[in-house]
Design goal:
158 residues; alpha+beta; three-stranded antiparallel β-sheet; 7 helices; globular
C-alpha cells in the first residue's frame, strides 16, 4: 500500500499529487506510531514542535490519546519525511475558517481531514493498489494499529 502511494506521488499531476502526499503522511503516522485515526487526523500544527534533546534536535508531536491523555511522539525516519513533505504542501493550502491549526487539511478545500475521510481514503487506496476485494472489505485504519502491534510483539515487545 505504501509503495503504491509513493509511486502515485511521483506520477500524479500537480492537482492530484497533494492528495497522495496527505495520504502518505496520515497513514504513516497511524501505522508506525500506532495512532488511532481520530488521533492522527486531530493533530494540530501547534502540537508539533522541534525541540532540543540530549541526542540533538528532534521533531515531536503531542497527541491527545483516548481518555484525553497527552503523549509525545518523536517523528523520525519515514514518518518525519512524510510529515515534512506534507508541510511543504500544506503551506500552499488556504485553511477553511476555523481549521487553521489542524495539521491535515484537504489540499483543495482547506477543511480538516476527518476520521471518516481518512478511512475512506485508506479503502480507496487499497482498492487502487490491487489489494484483494475481500481484504479491502474488512480493512480499516485500526488494522494499521493492529499491524504495528503485531510487529512489535514479533520483535519481543511486551
Amino acid at each position: 500500500l505504501f509503495a503504491y502511494v509513493e509511486a502515485r506521488i511521483t506520477t500524479a499531476d500537480d492537482r492530484i499529487a497533494p492528495l497522495y502526499i496527505l495520504d502518505a503522511a496520515v497513514l504513516r503516522l497511524m501505522e508506525l506510531l500506532a495512532l488511532r485515526v481520530s488521533e492522527a487526523s486531530g493533530i494540530r500544527v501547534s502540537q508539533v514542535r522541534t525541540v532540543d534533546t540530549p541526542a540533538g534536535r528532534e521533531v515531536q508531536a503531542w497527541v491527545l490519546k483516548k481518555g484525553n491523555k497527552p503523549r509525545v511522539y518523536p517523528l523520525t525516519g519515514v514518518v518525519l519525511a512524510a510529515y515534512q513533505r506534507w508541510l511543504r504542501v500544506r503551506q500552499r493550502v488556504t485553511p477553511h475558517p476555523g481549521h487553521d491549526d489542524f495539521l491535515f487539511l484537504h489540499p483543495w478545500t482547506g477543511y480538516r481531514v476527518s476520521r471518516q475521510r481518512a478511512w475512506q481514503r485508506l479503502k480507496r487506496l487499497a482498492a487502487e493498489a490491487g489489494v484483494p476485494e475481500a481484504t479491502v472489505a474488512v480493512l480499516s485504519p485500526h488494522k494499521l494499529r493492529h499491524a504495528r502491534a503485531r510487529r512489535m510483539l514479533d520483535n519481543g515487545w511486551d
